[in-house]
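Field notebook, page 462. I keep forgetting to write these up properly, so this time I am using the form the group agreed on. The chain and the ligand, nicotinamide-adenine-dinucleotide, are recorded exactly as supplied. Prediction of the bound pose follows.
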Amino acid sequence: MKQHDLVVIGAGPGGYVAAIRAAQLGLNAACVEFERALGGTCLRIGCIPSKALLDSSRLYDEAVNGFASRGITVGKIGIDLPKMLAHKDQVVKGLTGGVDGLFRKNKVTRYYGRGRLDGPGRIVVDLADGGKEEIQAKHVIVATGSVPATLPNIDIDGELVTSSTEALSYPEIPGHLVVIGGGYIGLEMGTVWRRLGSKVTVLEYLDRILPLSDAEIAKEAEKIFRKQGLDIRLGVKVTGVKKNRKTVDVEVEGGETVRCDRVLMAVGRRPYTSGLGLETVGVETDRRGFVPVDERYRTAAEGVYAIGDVIGGAMLAHKAEEEGIACVERIVTGYGHVNYDAIPSVVYTEPEVAAVGKTEEELKADGVEYKKGTFPFVANGRAKAVGHTEGKVKILADAKTDRVLGVHIIGPHAGDLIAECAVAMEFGASSEDIARSCHAHPTLSEAVKEAALAVAGRAIHY
Ligand code: FAD
Ligand code: NAD
């Protein structure tokens, strides 16, 4: 029987990072993954391929709709979809292969097969090429991630009714794509196919898009996305789908049906624990299928930990990574933690929507008194120069202490701008700290500085 100090089940951003950190700290570490390519949902069918397509479709959109206004004339612009998809696959191949390299460099043993717990300290791997491997480990980290959720009476067939996985590789540009769900995936993948020429209808159950984000920013995003051509319908309850030979009728409460060529189910993701043998160590999942853990990522079973999407909370790659590192550092050094108040989130549309910390609605609900400073990109020199002036920065700070409690940005490169705000919050910065820090000119980051100045009513440029 093989022996390791620590075995991670699942090689997503939570799992592979945990395995590498464990090896760095001197443990004999291993990682079990049943997909040939390492990197999990994020690298194979999530963050990375979606961003490759978002970027390719943005380039196309700029060429068609943006170049002429800058005096750039080009000939006929076309789309070679197979080539665009091949570029995305190449990016994925490079990065997943990179994780193989990192495992070799750090001497992490990789098991290629499906892992399951088999009583305390024991893992059985059903190897991909047949046979079994039995492993003994002092510590086991469950990092098995999540899979697409669907609605009770809708089956994802992967053809007409699809998940994000298929939406990353549609072989043709759908004439009409109906997206069910106006969250991250609905808006990002909806944007990709809209830019490439599809009519895209987003059906959202709630009366707003991006349910957990700041309401003012979500409203502005909705307005901008509608103007770009996304047909967003709010307060719509989908009751089922009827598949025809080549089309689908999406049935909506009230009797209406929406006919389309493909459906993208984007109503969230659910934890993946099937066949994992949690019962062999006495771990029960919660009502929604998540693995319950304490603040040290310990499950109910001695020596068994869990991190990432499978434990719930924000289903984000960087949150999974932070948890993987904190979990391992706790095991080895006794220290390590994740500050859940400073985890940024980014929707990679154009403009991007980024946030860190509390929303205005959360502060109101918690009875926290706050001050607010906003600054529009239309008053930022760099935004003007690059022709992306939509959106704003909004900073929320404690009314008494001025400590930054939340930052919400919709605008160009919001996903990069939010990093400064997350660091500021980690250091317990006040809005005045940001306002008094020198920001290079002309940069988009000056909008962050100006929003911080605006908290005290002293923005200079607006
Ligand atoms: P996963 O990445 O899901 O990895 C779990 C791994 O475990 C998988 O590889 C799976 O094959 C393996 N596994 C499961 N069971 C077993 C078993 N029994 N034995 C062996 N292996 C097993 N997040 C962001 O932060 N930014 C983004 O831009 C972003 N974009 C996304 C776009 C899309 C289309 C999707 C679907 C998700 C996106 N996410 C994004 C979310 C992000 O992908 C997840 O939050 C992240 O991958 C979670 O990491 P994880 O390690 O917990 O799990
Ligand atoms: P989501 O939670 O972001 O959005 C789901 C949306 O579907 C919500 O707006 C919800 O109100 C709506 N919905 C739920 N039931 C519905 C119904 N019956 N009819 C119509 N709408 C309904 O989930 P997602 O977009 O599927 O993405 C899954 C997860 O993957 C996200 O939570 C996110 O954590 C992660 N992700 C992150 C990124 C990123 O960081 N840029 C990108 C893609 C995915």
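OBSERVATIONS:
- The CA atoms of residues 142 and 306 lie 4 Å apart.
- The domain at 2-148+270-338 is CATH 3.50.50.60 (FAD/NAD(P)-binding domain).
FOLLOW-UP: compare against the apo run.
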